[in-house]
Amino acid sequence: MRLVVDANVLFSFFKRDSVTRKLITSPELLLFAPAFSLRELDKHEEEIVNRAKISPDAYEPSKKVLREFVEFIPLEKYEKKLTLAKETSPDPKDIRYFALALWLNIPLWTNEKRLKRQDKVLVLSTSELIEMKPL
What we know:
Rossmann fold; 5-stranded parallel beta sheet
């Protein structure tokens, strides 16, 4: 299954034994995210380290592993979908995720319930993915 992954899902990857990490590393999923998501991760590095209970030295190696499972797509590839994404996204902060999902014509993986309040992009939560594909 192909999915666009939002930043909050990516944050959960850093917790070693998380269900999210198991899903992200599953060979059954092909994952994409806007390239700016990498900057978002770095911006929240301290918070990620604290929440995931990893050492600061483990952050970069973990991010490198994440890049093996998620393809980060530059804005230039999907920018033609930004106008439709602005009309679609219930939250302005998520426009690029919607634009990428629209460009690739695939669902968005997020745990933000409010993003389901539109009818252009299928939005799936972690629990819905687990129901679809047992770990």
